Amino acid sequence: AALCEAFTLCGLGPSGGVGLGAGVLALEPGPDADHVLLTDRGRTATLFKVSDQKPLGCWSVKHGQMITCPVVCNFETHEYVAVHDDKVLRIWKDEDVNLDKVFKATLSAEVYRIHSLPHGEPLVLFKGGGVRTLDVLLEAPQQEIENFISDEVIKWSEAFLEGQEPILIFATEKDGDYFIYIQKFKLNILHKYKLEQEESSNPLSFTAYIKNQIITLLCLYSNDSIYKVLIPLQQHSEEEEQILSKSLLLKLSVSGSVLKGTSFAVLDKDHVAVLGSLTACGEESKECLTIWNTKFQTLQTSKELPLGTSGQLWCYGEKFFFTHGKVLTVIIYKCETSSLAAAVGKLKDSQTSDVSFLNWNTLSDEELVVSLQSQQSVTLKSESKMTLRSRRSSVAKVPTDALTAGQLLLDIKDSSSAAVEEKLKQLLSKAQMPDVQATIGCVIPALINRCKTDPSFYPQNFLVQLIQKQELSYSLCPDLMAVALEKKDMHLLQICLQRFPDIPEEMTYACLKLFLSISDDYLERTDVNLDSVISYIDIESNNKGVKNEMVENGFNTELEEDSCDTIFTKETPLKNDGEFCPVGPQKAALLNAVLHSAYSETFLLPHLKDLPAQQAVLFLRYLRYLYVKSSEKINTSLPGALSPTINQIMDWMCLLLDAHFTVMVMLPEAKGLLSSLHKFVRAQVRFYSELNKIEGSLQELQRLKCQKETQAYSIEVLELI
């Protein structure tokens, strides 16, 4: 088993954009395998596409209301189901926006949890132990719900499908005793069991799965152990309350260290994942995510989580989800067939030795050297079609190549920038080197760590070439842009914004703020790619104040300005905004890179509100300049490579006005800008309105032209009514 790539799904703080300051209530599977539903401990539910790390929808109940159980997806109807204030049921679809206008039903009893099933109706579990399928509940929302457990408190529940029959299992607690209930719907039978007590220890977390008519219940106890309980579905005993005996499955200790688990998940029949604090004698405890082999009682892998967690762990589609600091983190994992060789880390199979599944951030430099040696050796051995002579020749070269890659990681610690750059170029230029991407994945963190600890070390040229030539992402090197911001490396930031598909909105905002704050004089001395602006910004005209009178789009904004009701006496300096770029070409190119980066309005808007007013006005002036420039041409597109599109310009303009409209209305220097922007937009609306009026006539002309065959030369008079 191995922990692979990790990335951030969303922020959780007050400025994270999802309103998750109170924490996560639960994470549920979405309508397909790449979607998850996130419910916070408040008013909001958000649907995420995990691979894109972007929200697809966000719904909130009104102020004063609170979502009290996790939102789930009804896989039968592709609808979402939620309960707020314990008794109010809401059902909606993707296209719904306002939850006040969706289906609502007030129930007669308080709901504990709703469980969705892949091929069946959701099950609604009430706090009194009563259970209904959603369709039966909707037939009569005020129907009476039985109360089986008036003195007990539900601690956990889960639902399964055994064949076509839904099965619900839940655990309750009363005065230190724990009880297990199993509800079978076909026969409408509720079985109650008492869990065998463990001396001076209580269960902290439960999970279960069903196979061959037997429910396997796993319990994580406070004595650092996981116990297994087998519950057969076919019960013939008439005894009202049977005692469930348990057996020790796993002791969470290794080499004198003990894992104080808080939550866990079953990965397959031989592996479990446990989230908790790893404690050793005389050492401070460290929060970790771990994978254990229950068959051989071994710790397979672990990842330290220095920023802390909430103790919650979810597992869907070979991905772990958990909070880490102020973000919700996703880690991909891989589990191989359980064998003794794999359990002790000696498995040599080529599939399990893939270097891309190593956790580079937790390996030491010496381990990285060994890993690279092992990977290259395995890769060469897998090429079964080579001749004996060529195979011997290749194997003979393995130590040199492996030591070069491994030695480089050690050299990064103390060599100069020039020396490191030269060795990196030699390493990556080897056409036959296997797993170039994986090697880059371990080299970049080492470079960034050196940059953080040694201010004089910064291999800027190599980093730029690496991003330009390789398909990298922000999640592969999350600290790279932070280092570039600290170094004010405009060129590197520009390339990252243009090439990384998964940049967080917080980082996009940080780049925008830096670009707007730096003077044009400083930027003139920096290396910035001007391909996106050189075709439409006339630098000479911008300096000399030459006015361009060409109008291609059928109207002139100045002809419309005198018809505006609001008149400002100080508009003269702003009249040139549409003709001359308010920023230098270097800053314009950097701002264009920001316009190209992907973002979610929900996540970006809170950050944009923190943009200083003067910088917001400058950015809006530049966006207006781009808008006017785009509208001069018939095809409403700017020339040049990577130039912003009209849609990007409009989206950012609307977003900026949403974030700063009140401030801009109050700023004297912004009033003229808003007025001229209003006039320009109104002029365009009038122009397109006039075009719409003659649309029918133009279509009629087209029809007549198709019907009549004209000679090489003819004069026709057509009357337009």
TrEMBL record:
Q: Which cell locations does it reside in?
A: Nucleus, Nucleolus
Q: Which UniProt keywords apply?
A: Activator, Nucleus, rRNA processing, Transcription, Transcription regulation
Report the GO terms under cellular component: nucleolus
Q: What is its main location?
A: nucleus
Q: Tell me, what is one Gene Ontology molecular-function annotation carried by this entry?
A: RNA binding
Q: What is a biological process (GO) this protein takes part in?
A: maturation of SSU-rRNA
Please list the residue ranges annotated as the Nucleolar protein 11 N-terminal domain. Answer: 2-334
The signal sequence is: none
Q: Which InterPro entries match?
A: NOL11, Nol11_C, NOL11_N, WD40_repeat_dom_sf
Where would you find the membrane-spanning parts of this chain?
none
Which residue ranges does the record assign to the Nucleolar protein 11 C-terminal domain? 407-720
Please give the name of this protein: NOL11 protein
